[in-house]
Specification:
nine-stranded antiparallel β-sheet, 10% helix, 37% strand, globular, mainly beta, binds zinc ion
Length: 144
């Protein structure tokens, strides 16, 4: 009975993501959602270790990037590496891949427009797959 209750609770949390403010959300590409004021951005690490950022409206409907710019700093053990992004279709993709390894922090700065207020997101880079939700650990939506 207790187990069932827990299951129901987990399900309730899963369908009501707005309740918990700091809970990690995953986007349609199984990346990590970076919440901005107007659009949401989604951080995703591609197979070639480049970072791609997709944009969505509040209802998570895909949006083409217009005035948004993204920059990232990988705080890798080998030293900090700055990543520049360029537009590729509806994505902003880093021109260079992430430095080797993982378990370091990637700081992503999203700027909504040239004179807009930028927002920084600190993402712990863990590329292994979470068995429970199937997302990469940096986008894991499980409670713990
Ligand atoms: Zn998970």
């Amino acid at each position: 009975m207790k187990k069932l209750l827990k299951l129901v609770l987990v399900f309730a949390i899963a369908i009501a993501p707005a309740v918990a403010g700091e809970k990690i959300k995953a986007g349609p590409r199984k990346g990590r959602v970076l919440e901005m004021e107007a659009k949401n951005a989604e951080f995703f690490v591609e197979k070639d270790r480049t970072v791609s950022i997709a944009f969505y409206d509040a209802a998570m409907k895909a949006q083409a990037p217009t005035t948004e710019t993204v920059a990232a700093t990988a705080e890798a053990p080998s030293g900090k590496a700055k990543l520049e992004f360029e537009k590729k279709g509806n994505l902003l993709v880093s021109k260079t891949p992430l430095p080797a390894g993982e378990h370091y922090t990637v700081v992503v700065q999203v700027k909504p427009s040239a004179d807009g207020k930028s927002k920084n997101f600190r993402i712990p880079l863990d590329l292994s797959t979470c068995k429970a939700c199937g997302n990469a650990e940096y986008a894991c939506i499980c409670d713990e």
